[in-house]
Structure formats: structure tokens, C-alpha cells
Amino acid sequence: MPTRRVSVFAVVFVCVISSLSILLAKQFAASFRTPRPQPVVIGEFSTFISPEDDRGPVRMVRFTLYSEGIFPQRLRVHQGLINLAIEDKTGVSSGLVIERIVDTDRVPIGTVRRFADHWRGRELIRFAPGEYRLYDGSRPVNQAELIVEP
Description:
The structure is a single chain. With 150 residues, the protein is an alpha+beta fold. It has 2 domains: 1-33; 40-149, Immunoglobulin-like. The protein contains 1 helix and 11 strands. It has one helix at 2-32, and strands at residues 40-42, 46-48, 58-65, 70-71, 74-78, 80-88, 96-102, 105-112, 120-127, 130-136, 143-149. The strands form 2 sheets. It has a 6-stranded mixed beta sheet with strand order 1-2-9-6-3-4, with no helix packed on it. The chain has a 5-stranded mixed beta sheet with strand order 5-11-10-7-8, with no helix packed on it. A hairpin with a 4-residue loop joins strand 3 (58-65) and strand 4 (70-71). The radius of gyration is 25 Å and the shape is elongated.
């Protein structure tokens, strides 16, 4: 009889420990998941989008940030989805700030930041036709122009 109690106790103990291990593993894994980006409309002009909204052709545009300036300084693209990538050769930039020029006003759109511990970063953005001013967040005098055509 004592061995039967021991084996029932052992089975119950193993079941409880297994259940706790599974619960803890799920919570631990959830704490390391990166949140999914939510679509955010910024003004009525351009939109940072989530992966679910990436329908249509995507154009790749890359800007390189140097201490002396941004290359290319002027670029023309067609409206729609643009995968805007940056390469930070300075190593200290706070990112590429995007503003839309409307008449004499500048409407902030957002910032493309480099990934942690990397020189590069990117954002998928839906651009509407217009003129955009891009500048290095750490060196605002370093500017570039993006012209989005219909």
C-alpha cells in the first residue's frame, strides 16, 4: 500500500510540475515577443504601415547618412509603398527625420531609425504625391529631398 501512495503522489507531482513549467514557458516566451506594428496614419499625407497592409508594388529607396551630408541629396519616386532604408556611416545619428512640405509649412511624418547595434534601419511607408524634406536628426543641416510623383 505505501508504494501505491508513493506512485500516485509521484504522478500527481509530475503533472503539477509539468503544468507549471508549460505556463512559465509561455509567459517567458511572451515577454520576448516584439509587438506587431499597428497602422498609424500621420496627418492625411503619408502612412507608416503594418506588414498586413503591404499590398502593391514596393519601391526600395536608400539614403546614406554621412558626417558631411546625406546621399543622395535629391530623389524622385512614384507614389505608393516605399521601403525607406538608411545606412548610418556616422554611427551616432538619431535617424532620418521625414517632413512633408505643404506650401510653406512642414508637416512631420516620422523618423526612420537604425536598428539597435546595427548601421542600418528601414520603414515601410506609403507616400502620397508631394515634396518631402529629409534630414539627419543629429545634424539637421544635413538634408535631402524626396519628390513623390503621382
